[in-house]
Amino acid sequence: MPRALPILTVAALAVALVGCSSADPDTTSTPTDGATADARTCAASGPESDAVSVTGDFGALPTVDFDAPLEPDTTQVSVVSDGTGEEVPYPSVISVDYSFYDGTTGDVIESTNFTSGEEAVFVLDESQLLPGLLKTIECAEVGSRVVGVSTSDDGFGDDGLEDYGIAGGDSLVFVVDIVSAVTRAEGEAQDPVAGMPTVELDADGAPTVTIPDDYTLPTTTQSAVLIQGAGAQVQATDQVYIQYQGINAETGEIFDQTWGRAPYGGSASNFIAGFTNTLVGQNVGSQFLVVIPPADGYGEASDDNTNALAGQTLVFVVDVLAAVPTA
C-alpha cells in the first residue's frame, strides 16, 4: 500500500545524512584539486529502483509504494521525471525535497514538507554526504525527481541508525526532487571600488585577486559587493554555504580556498569578526570582497598568539551560495 509520510523538521535527520565540518575554514590547509564529475561513475537503474512506484508532481509530496524487502547488490537510481536544468555539478550546494524509507522493512523514516523555500540544503561531496543519497542525486538534472535504492554499505552499514529504527544491514529508499544546484554567485555584477584589490573570475567562477602595488593596508575592515544577488539576506543565526578564497594582503599568497575542493557550510556567526560582520546582511547569490586587518581577524602575533595568520591583513573573496535559518 502507499505509505503515509511523517513530515518532520529537516534538521532532525540531517546530521545523520551529512558529515561533520569545522566551525571555521581550514586556514592552514593547502588548496588541492577535487574530484570532478567526469571522473565519477553514475549509479545505474536496476530492478529494485524500478520497482519503486512514485506518483505525484515534482514539488509536491509524492505517493510511494514498494514491496519490502528491497535487497540491491549495488545502489540503484531510476529517474521518475526528467528535469529541464543542467546535470547537477559535483561538487555543489544543492537544495532538495526528499522522502526517506527503510528499504528492508518498508517503514517510513522522514520527509521534508515540499514547500518552496524550505528545502533541505546539502553539500554534494563524497566526504560530506551519505553515499546512497549522493549517488541518488549527483548525475540527475536539476528539476528531476529521482528514486534511489541504497545498499546498506552506502547507507548506515552494520550499525544502522537506532534513533530512526534503521537496523544494521537495512537498505534505504530515497525519493528526491532536485530543486537547485549552485557552485558560484549568480547575480548582477557591480562596479569595482577604486583603490581596493581587483577580482577576475575564470569560466567556473574561481577568482584571481590582484593587490594594487600602492595598496595601503587598512586599519579597519573594508568591503565591497562584486556581484549583487537576489536571495534572502544572511542572518547571524543562519547556516551558510559559501565558496571562498583567502589571500595574504601583503604577499598576494592564497592561504586557503574552497575552489578545487567543495563549498563550505557552517554557522554565519562562527568566523573571525571581520568575516562574519561582512557576511551577515549579504544576499544569497552575492559575491563580496573583504579586507580584514589583524584587529578584526586573528589578532597580532605574540608569544600567546601563535596562529599562522596572526598579524596578517587578510583578503577574502566570498560567494554566498545558500543560507538556512536555524532559529
From TrEMBL:
<dbReference type="GO" id="GO:0003755">
    <property type="term" value="F:peptidyl-prolyl cis-trans isomerase activity"/>
</dbReference>
<keyword id="KW-0143">Chaperone</keyword>
<dbReference type="Pfam" id="PF00254">
    <property type="entry name" value="FKBP_C"/>
</dbReference>
<keyword id="KW-0697">Rotamase</keyword>
<protein>
    <recommendedName>
        <fullName>peptidylprolyl isomerase</fullName>
        <ecNumber>5.2.1.8</ecNumber>
    </recommendedName>
</protein>
<dbReference type="InterPro" id="IPR046357">
    <property type="entry name" value="PPIase_dom_sf"/>
</dbReference>
<comment type="function">
    <text>Also involved in hydrogenase metallocenter assembly, probably by participating in the nickel insertion step. This function in hydrogenase biosynthesis requires chaperone activity and the presence of the metal-binding domain, but not PPIase activity.</text>
</comment>
<feature type="domain" description="PPIase FKBP-type">
    <location>
        <begin position="237"/>
        <end position="324"/>
    </location>
</feature>
<feature type="signal peptide">
    <location>
        <begin position="1"/>
        <end position="23"/>
    </location>
</feature>
<keyword id="KW-0732">Signal</keyword>
<dbReference type="InterPro" id="IPR001179">
    <property type="entry name" value="PPIase_FKBP_dom"/>
</dbReference>
<comment type="similarity">
    <text>Belongs to the FKBP-type PPIase family.</text>
</comment>
<keyword id="KW-0413">Isomerase</keyword>
<feature type="domain" description="PPIase FKBP-type">
    <location>
        <begin position="91"/>
        <end position="182"/>
    </location>
</feature>
<keyword id="KW-0963">Cytoplasm</keyword>
